[in-house]
Amino acid sequence: MTLRLITAGESHGPGLTCLVEGLPAGLAITPEDLNRDMARRQLGHGRGGRMKIERDAAEVTAGIRHGRTLGGPIALQVANRDYANWEERMSPWPVDQEVAEVHLPRPGHADLVGTQKYKHSDVRNILERASARETAARVAGGALCKTFLRALGVEVRSHVVQIASVHAPEPGRALTLEDFAEADSSPVRCLDADATRAMVREIDDLRKANESLGGVFEVQAFGLVPGLGSHVSWEERMDGRLAMAICSIQAVKGASLGDAFTVAGLPGSQAHDEIYYSTERGYYRETNRAGGLEGGMTNGLPLIVRGAMKPLPTLTKPLRSVDTETHEPAQALRERTDSCTVPAAGVVGEAMVAFVLADAYRRKFGGDHIDDVLQAVGAYGERIGWPT
To answer: Quick one: which of 374, 174, 172 has its CA closest to 285?
Structure first.
């Protein structure tokens, strides 16, 4: 049993569609389960004017009846409220008016290579789908996955650890689920108050200079059973699945698992998490440098994944480019844009991590009904001495 998540739609088209296939029947779902994260994706200091237009909500069009999943594919629709201003330019069908093509690709965006690959002359045929607006559909699907995981005792959270040159201090201890309670109260979703203020200043200063900003977000998952994923083949390793999921997010250029880049510079005696045992706790570790993953499998400790996001390629002071029709030097396309979306990227990261973990539970435990899944997880936990 595997899980599938497919999205469709363009940034300024009628709306976005998400299809999730593989969740068990009987899982309780509420509108709040879906729309809580839809609103969270729109948070963050540095967002642009579109966030004043869009108030994202996911409408269920298939797969859920009277608040419970039916076992078939679940279809979600997210309307683009801005479509009213783009109806002629983005109509699925030919229009009477002439619609000007876009020939000004942006450095760092999919624009140029996309037109080459798909034989388009109009850059808009690429940029609309390549836009990070697509992540609204992923967050909707990820909310379903998070609800499934929550039924199994798993919670997924995120926070921002860097924006541009500002780094939040390392906490000096393992974070707990409770530490994330106020993350969304920060305008940049950072857990440190001093770093929050510095990040806000950094965004304001660089925005005035017509710059965009990148940064780093961290996703943690609590309550995972040991043994999700496998060491037996490369495509089953959780490390690879998680890295792919994080790096699939628009503008994310790197992923790390646990203390990856720190332990790369340490001797082995300081890099690994020593194993202990007691009758009360069973097997346990005092550190979590591996980020909850060993040998391509979860080990029962909190999962820790980071994503590094580059500055957005749409700038209010455009970079140099080339007109694809005339081949003459030109400024890149200027569209309405955000200055910084790292806080929102953390929420998208939650969705992608939740999808990978939900898929791992479906692969390992199967079950046509949520009760079957719970029973299988319980039996496995009893076999390995893991509390469930």
So the answer is: 174
Structure tokens at 372: 């079957």
Beta pairing partners, 322: 329
Which structural domain, as residue segments, surrounds residue 283?
A: 4-384
What are phi and psi for residue 143, nearest 5 degrees?
-65, -35
Cα(306)–Cα(289) distance, integer angstroms:
13
Whole-angstrom CA distances from 318 to 45, 104, 254, 270, 353 are: 22, 10, 25, 46, 33
Q: Which token pair is 96?
A: 């009477």
Whose tokens are 């909707």? That residue is 140
Residues 6+ apart with CB under 8 A from 112: 105, 123, 324
Contact 173, 191 (CB under 8 A): no
What's this model's pTM, rounded to 2 decimal places?
A: 0.96
Q: What are the tokens at 366?
A: 């199967």
292 Rama sector, left if φ>0, alpha if ψ -120 to 50, beta otherwise: left
Supply the pLDDT for residue 62: 98
Contact 57, 136 (CB under 8 A): no
CA proximity to 360, closest of 228, 178, 192, 208: 228
Give every residue of the chain whose pLDDT is below 50, as ranges: none
59 strand-pairing partners: 77
Task: Tell me 105's DSSP state.
Answer: P
| Token couple for 66 | 């009277």
d(CA 348, CA 143): 10
Judged by DSSP in three states, 92 sits in coil
What domain count does the chain have? Answer: 1
CA distance to 111, 149, 237, 252, 349, per residue, from 298 (Å) = 38, 15, 10, 23, 18
Q: How far does CA 288 lie from the centroid of its chain?
A: 23
CATH of the domain at 100: 3.60.150.10
CA-nearest of 235, 196, 236 to 364 is 236
Amino acid identity at 166:
V
3-state secondary structure of 220: strand
Q: What is the pLDDT of residues 94-133, one digit of tens each?
A: 999 999 999 999 999 999 999 999 999 999 999 999 999 9
